[in-house]
Amino acid sequence: MPRTTRSGDEAEVPTLGAVDHLRVLTRVLLGPVVKGPIVRRPTAVGLAERLDTDAAGVAEMQRLRSRYGTGPVQLRIPGRRIALLLDPADVHRVLNDSPTPFSPATLEKRGALNHFEPAGALVSTPQQRLSRRPFNEQVLETPRPVHSHATAMTKVITEEVSALLGHVDFTGTLDWEAFAVMWGRLVRRIVLGASARDDDQVTDDLRRLRQRGNFSYLMPQNRRLRERFLRRLQHYIELAEPGSLAALVAQTPAPDEAVPHQQVPQWLFAFDAEAWATFRALSLLTNHPGAVETARSEMAHAPDLPFLRATVLESLRLWPTTPLILRDSTAATHWRNGTLPPGTALVIYAPFFHRDDENLPQAHRFSPELWSQDREDSDWPLVPFSAGPGMCPGRNVVLLTSSLVLGELLRQHDFTAQEPLDTSQLSGTLSPFSSHFTVRHD
Ligand code: HEM
Questions:
Q1: For 168-189, how does the pLDDT look when each residue is reduced to its tens digit (9 = 90+)?
Q2: Is the pLDDT of residue 1 over 70?
Q3: To which protein family does this belong (predicted)?
Q4: Which is the CATH superfamily of the domain at 18-441?
């Protein structure tokens, strides 16, 4: 029952006391900001791993729930009202009721993404979303587990992983730097086309814009750089090289308001998260008894790779690459413990739900079976790709390409992690940037 004030008005959702405010700011919200919300800072991620900041964040959220109950709780920082969600039903509600009254185009996201994609779907008004979201879904073929470009994507992946393995055979090791070079080429070929393979400039331009995005509104926009970057994307769309997503962009009918070339930066940018998830998944597979054999045995059925897909999902559950899922309310909203005014930022801290060992027995162990069936709203929220109308439209492209990369890596090579992981008790934070493998050709 919502609380009421003496005048009969519904009371507001409880606000945290001063000490709890400070604890939440430092233990829950600061980590993702310092690590870099738009482009990661490897040194900060390494430090977060040493301190296991994500485990501290989850423990803090559990403490809040036992102290305040399962209704949302409010924080107030100058100029911003923030509500943290503590209950699974509230998570499903907020994600399902998007974009109104819970808009994905939050103040902070607009500040960050406007540096490189001011017309991207994620930062659009509900009216603009009506054309931009379907455009993304059409090109990325959101509902299809296997994209119609899977053959072309498989060819790119086989070639680029093979080139990486040539280097690995020579050095006997695989580290993040080599993996990231391979990944950059692979992504440019899949998204922009074959001639973009060695266009490091386009990736560097985006990285520079994303670095500005890490500071959101606090950093002025570099319009000239943004224009150069977006013109380069338009160039690849006009080339429309066969098998690329750029070719699909060129072919897909779009109303003016869809601004097709401005949907592409989000794809290039989001493929980074897939790189981290894939490298972490490699750590899981190579440390878990029997996992490599299971992965190899399904490679005969590629691209149908359910175990590898579930492993990637597990990597994302254990170490979510979007730890803060944000929505801004566009109207007053009512909760079991009170109301929230319009303009409140609603925060879903994904690690809390993914690693809540008070509710999820598998919280800290590698458990691919969690993903053997589609998940429903009545299930515990595991939301690495968000959910509802704002769910990542690239989810299936991610699972397809990431599982193929892992399969190709493991086909004929044995990887041994230089720092072993205990897959029955995994830490809350894992930096992909410091993972290192010793590799032997079978
Ligand atoms: C591991 C990789 C990825 C993860 C974990 C991921 C996760 C997410 C999440 C959580 C959101 C919602 C963000 C929000 O509500 O603020 C999102 C949105 C989006 N993602 Fe992904 N993503 C990944 C890769 C990709 C890739 C590779 C593409 C395209 C090829 C893509 C395309 C998009 C687009 C276009 C949106 C905006 C959707 C909208 O506003 O309706 N993502 N993603």
A1: 999 999 999 999 999 999 999 9
A2: no
A3: Belongs to the cytochrome P450 family.
A4: Cytochrome P450 (1.10.630.10)
